[in-house]
């Protein structure tokens, strides 16, 4: 009997050892570890722009997840990756600032529930770092005109119909106007901000749509500089209607009756900071859990921020917060039927990815009446 137990224990131990070993895309035997523990692959983020071959190699290196953090088969990057034939670069048309589309009555309402939140890439394992070309097609990148006359892309947002996007109030008024510039345009269908034509493994996206901003409407209760960033939500109206494509689609607004339980899975995406603290040129994503509300409120109260019932806390583990997304970008949830909805707006946090400190998001559900009324009253 003792002999059988010993054999069983050895068998289980061997299974564990085997499960921890893996083969890198280059064919070498290695260990499956957290991405943060693999210096060889983390070093890939030092390259700007991130080559398509490297993005593909990083995807092939994934061997599972540690909570919401991707695990990778750790090994060196290839000295020379496979080449990808890209189409010739195209010259982007300038923003047609003088063109204003006529009012369309259907833009007075968020997109109907049966026509939004459809991820055109279908089912996949979520929680990895890199998005696919057509993943989260509702993402918006806000462009600001600097004092030097150049465009700077800082905040994020989500498309809620052909004429409107949802973002954070601090992305349209206040300090950002002094530090960066005035909100000028919205970019839709973007993946890599440093390339004209975005391609992965010989699959290329359509050109992004650069649409001038006609007006921005921050919530009237927002006060720039207030430490808790209460009412940090805004509506942006475009001068022209977006054109829906495989890479540009609207997201659904959250069901007003939804109650997010502690531990529920939510996601952020955007062009935020990488593990090295630099801004990513490629759209990133991250899954994380809803954080305990009471504990979150207690934590932020200690640093002088009195949170309200109109805010959501999520993340809280090392490197798991909206640093991977953008201010104004969405906190998203995937419904059981596969449809995506916007449940929050990236607002602020205590540092970036600090262990034990969740990020704070404006609750979309608490502002649904204001969102709908703002769209209706400004679509004139």
Automatic annotation (TrEMBL):
Compartmental location: Secreted
Membrane-traversing stretches: none
InterPro entries in the record: CLIP (IPR022700), CLIP_sf (IPR038565), Peptidase_S1_PA (IPR009003), Peptidase_S1_PA_chymotrypsin (IPR043504), Peptidase_S1A (IPR001314), Ser/Thr_Proteases_Immune/Dev (IPR051487), Trypsin_dom (IPR001254), TRYPSIN_HIS (IPR018114)
SUPFAM superfamilies noted in UniProt: Trypsin-like serine proteases
Top-tier EC class: hydrolase
Superkingdom per UniProt: Eukaryota
GO biological process: proteolysis
Ranges of residues in domain Clip: 21-74
Peptidase S1 domain segment(s): 125-376
Enzyme Commission identifier(s): 3.4.21.-
Cellular-component GO terms for this entry: extracellular region
Assigned keywords, A-Z: Disulfide bond, Glycoprotein, Hydrolase, Protease, Secreted, Serine protease, Signal, Zymogen
GO molecular function term, any single one: serine-type endopeptidase activity
Signal peptide region: 1-19
Keyword check for Nucleus: no
Ranges in coiled-coil conformation: none
Notes concerning its domains: The clip domain consists of 35-55 residues which are 'knitted' together usually by 3 conserved disulfide bonds forming a clip-like compact structure.
Family the UniProt entry places it in: Belongs to the peptidase S1 family. CLIP subfamily.
Name recorded for this polypeptide: CLIP domain-containing serine protease
């Amino acid at each position: 009997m003792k002999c059988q137990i010993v054999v069983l224990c050895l068998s289980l131990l061997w299974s564990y050892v085997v499960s921890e070993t893996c083969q890198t895309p280059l064919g070498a035997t290695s260990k499956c570890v957290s991405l943060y523990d693999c210096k060889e692959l983390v070093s890939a983020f030092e390259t700007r722009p991130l080559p398509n071959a490297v993005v593909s190699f990083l995807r092939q290196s994934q061997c599972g997840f540690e909570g919401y953090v991707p695990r990778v088969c750790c090994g060196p990057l290839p000295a020379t990756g496979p080449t990808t034939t890209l189409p010739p670069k195209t010259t982007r048309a300038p923003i047609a600032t003088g063109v204003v589309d006529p009012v369309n009555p259907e833009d007075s309402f968020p997109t109907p529930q049966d026509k939004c939140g459809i991820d055109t890439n279908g089912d996949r394992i979520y929680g990895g770092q890199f998005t696919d070309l057509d993943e989260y097609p509702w993402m918006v990148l806000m462009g600001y005109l600097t004092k030097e006359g150049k465009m700077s892309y800082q905040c994020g947002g989500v498309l809620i119909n052909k004429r409107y996007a949802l973002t954070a109030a601090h992305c349209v008024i206040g300090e950002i106007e002094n530090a960066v510039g005035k909100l000028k345009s919205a970019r839709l269908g973007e993946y890599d901000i440093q390339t004209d034509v975005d391609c992965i493994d010989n699959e290329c996206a359509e050109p992004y749509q650069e649409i001038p901003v006609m007006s921005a409407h921050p919530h009237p209760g927002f006060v720039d500089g207030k430490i808790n960033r209460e009412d940090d939500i805004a509506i942006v109206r475009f001068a022209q209607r977006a054109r829906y494509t495989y890479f540009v689609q609207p997201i659904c607004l959250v069901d007003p009756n939804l109650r997010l339980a502690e531990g529920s899975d939510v996601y952020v995406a955007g062009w935020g900071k990488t593990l090295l603290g630099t801004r990513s040129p490629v759209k990133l994503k991250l899954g994380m859990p809803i954080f305990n509300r009471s504990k979150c409120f207690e934590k932020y109260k200690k640093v002088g921020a009195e949170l309200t019932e109109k805010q959501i806390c999520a993340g809280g583990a090392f490197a798991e917060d909206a640093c991977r997304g953008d201010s104004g970008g969405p906190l998203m949830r995937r419904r059981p039927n596969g449809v995506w909805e916007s449940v929050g707006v990236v607002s602020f946090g205590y540092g970036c990815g600090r262990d034990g400190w969740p990020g704070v998001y404006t609750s979309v559900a608490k502002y649904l009446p204001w969102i709908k009324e703002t769209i209706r009253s400004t679509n004139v």
